[in-house]
User: Fold this.
Amino acid sequence: MTTVLAIETSCDETAVAIVKNRQVCSSVIASQIPVHQQYGGVVPEVASRQHLETINRAIAQALEQAQLDWENIDGIAATCAPGLVGALLVGLTAAKTLAILYNKPFLGVHHLEGHIYATYLSEPTLDPPFLSLLVSGGHTSLIYVKDCGKYETLGETRDDAAGEAYDKVARLLKLGYPGGPIIDQLAQMGDPQAFTLPEGKVSLPQGGFHPYDASFSGLKTAVLRLVQQLEKEQGQVPVENVAASFQETVARALTKRAIACAIDHGLDTIAVGGGVAANSGLRKHLQAAGTQHNLQVLFPPLKFCTDNAAMIACAAADHLSRGHTSPLNLGVESRLPLTQVMKLYQPES
Assistant:
């Protein structure tokens, strides 16, 4: 069984975990949300500095939690793309240093591949092929998972990602940051049918609409106009109803596309990953639609929906078990398509 210690510092969580194949031995997550709340969003320079201050302690805690020492670790991994460059560099440099110091194989992991593997942590029998719906603050994609490192993008957002739309709508409603959990909580107290909002479709040059691509920018603008209209006509905004209507529209759009994509490609399982996978509206819609169409819909445990190092370690363990390692001159990349994952494991020239 392959045991990997992984570091995740792509954004505003300093996370370290140890995973033995798909079994989580330890998972440490130091969130920076209180630090960034005063700015209304993540400040890259502040995030990098926080990672530097926290990472050594997180590594020590992960080893202590797992009751393991370096002799028990088979490989050391870190997220190397995509993400905030400065933040990624902190985790990558730490992982490379540990790999050299303890003479262990080093692996650079794609952040989105980690989100795909998050479901593996709670589903030990899950194996490709299946459809992955990745929904987070920076990404909304439908991925055909063919095997470890072999992915095909079938659909994606053309503008705002679902999580990004949540944060922007939360800002419009003066709810604070991060927007996703706040809107989800308020939505459960509101009427999802209170307001009709546009789903956001992507037109095709030859006519009609793309069956799997999504667009949330227009929805965000529609909420802005609705809020302005309500303030003008009523003097106040029924926040719970706006939140519920917005969440209903996002969940319906994502569900419709994911179900159609799975059926069209003959896939009987949909695994959801990313921060928005924790959303109660999406879980409810997708599970109901999955049952209706005889599809298996899997969600990771809530603690593995948001950024964490356990999912990175799980992906790295699978790669390492197949003999994949990364060169020590591997750099970080702010953007890297998931379809190019295997370039991270090419040997040094």
Q: What stands out?
A: The two ends are 30 Å apart (CA to CA). Residues 239-264 form the longest helix (26 residues). The mean pLDDT is 95.
